[in-house]
């Protein structure tokens, strides 16, 4: 898995032979700064971007192949024992309203380098069926984290935040609530050259600017009813700058971005997941202590914990989910939940590149 944060590759070796997935081994491979910058640049309209995107897709495939090799070495498992690699690729455009989404990767090259079947391009089929193509992890949450009589909500805080609502006796729903880490990451990168605000410490040093928070919160996406999904196409530095006066103290902007993230997640829980008492966090944002404290304050009387409590490591949830989605594809079983994505019907997701 390589998500919107553009931090790197999460490689998980998963045993899916039983009902409960078992994480056999894991390997995190951060992107070198030049690759991250090249990916960020590709989010903008640029000269010869078609050529550039294919070169970067090749670079990513090599990155994924290296991560696979390191993972299998750690686990001491030969490639021949692996059924398939589910590889999300790196999103550079997400435009379901125009009928497409782009996750860069070269599945053929990854299959060639790894000698393992590769499943990629998980999102396009759902969009072809009229859906958002996102979020896809709720189907996995539905499969493994549902409780027969406890109303649970799973919140994945990656670059973008997405929620899964697991209400007993109800169809599972899910959607992107808005920004996760990506605005905070971009702001601290600009001002301190750091890739993220560890534990939200810098944000905790600033003071929320109410007028700015108010302006940012008027973004129509945040109040829109699901199904909905978003990405860097909307939430990016240009978007933020349009709302700044230029006189703000940087730490105060960071505090405000943390509040925006926390408030938009909390509002999504209140509006669309009413009645939940148990919230489980996953994704890198689950480590942001200041953000978690903000959520606890905004959502009192709910138990807020990490998904470790349910037996799945918060850092590996999404990678495990894409292993499961790859298994679904290899068996030609559907991977989407139409109630989540808005697709007209369940679909087998992904393109298969045989080894
Ligand atoms: N200790 C931490 N404190 C604050 N933020 C963190 C911490 N650890 C990870 N993160 C955040 O998590 C992000 C990576 O999360 P991840 O789940 O990989 O997102 P994505 O799926 O978008 O790649 C980092 O960019 C960072 O913002
Ligand atoms: Mg990541």
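^ structure tokens above, recovered residues below v
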């Amino acid at each position: 898995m390589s998500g919107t944060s553009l931090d790197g590759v999460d490689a998980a070796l998963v045993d899916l032979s039983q009902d409960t997935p078992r994480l056999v081994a894991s390997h995190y491979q951060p992107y070198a700064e030049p690759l991250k910058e090249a990916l960020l640049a590709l989010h903008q309209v640029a000269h010869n971007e078609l050529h550039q995107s294919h070169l970067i897709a090749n670079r990513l495939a090599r990155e994924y192949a290296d991560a696979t090799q390191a993972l299998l070495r750690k686990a001491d498992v030969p490639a021949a024992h692996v059924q398939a690699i589910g590889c999300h690729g790196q999103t550079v455009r997400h435009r379901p309203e125009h009928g497409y989404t782009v996750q860069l990767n070269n599945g053929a090259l990854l299959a060639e380098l790894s000698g393992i079947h590769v499943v990629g391009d998980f999102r396009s089929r759902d969009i072809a069926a009229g859906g958002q193509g996102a979020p896809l992890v709720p189907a996995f949450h539905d499969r493994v984290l549902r409780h027969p009589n406890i109303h649970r909500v799973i919140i994945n805080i990656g670059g973008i935040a997405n929620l899964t609502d697991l209400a007993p006796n109800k169809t599972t729903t899910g959607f992107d609530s808005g920004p996760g880490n990506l605005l905070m990451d971009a702001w601290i990168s600009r001002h301190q050259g750091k890739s993220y605000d560890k534990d939200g410490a810098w944000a905790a040093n600033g003071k929320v600017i109410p007028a700015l928070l108010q302006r940012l919160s008027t973004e129509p996406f945040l109040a829109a009813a699901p199904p909905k999904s978003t990405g860097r196409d909307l939430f990016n530095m240009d978007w933020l700058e349009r709302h700044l006066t230029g006189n703000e103290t940087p730490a105060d902007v960071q505090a405000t971005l943390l509040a925006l993230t926390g408030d938009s997640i909390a509002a999504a829980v209140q509006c669309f997941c009413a009645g939940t008492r148990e919230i489980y966090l996953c994704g890198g944002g689950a480590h942001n202590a200041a953000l978690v404290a903000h959520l606890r304050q905004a959502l009192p009387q709910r138990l807020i914990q990490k998904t470790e409590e349910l037996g799945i490591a918060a850092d590996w949830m999404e990678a495990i989910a894409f292993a499961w989605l790859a298994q679904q594809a290899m068996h030609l079983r559907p991977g989407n939940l139409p109630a989540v994505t808005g697709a007209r019907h369940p679909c087998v997701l992904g393109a298969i590149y045989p080894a």
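Residues 146-310 form a domain with the Nucleotidyltransferase; domain 5 fold (CATH 3.30.420.40).
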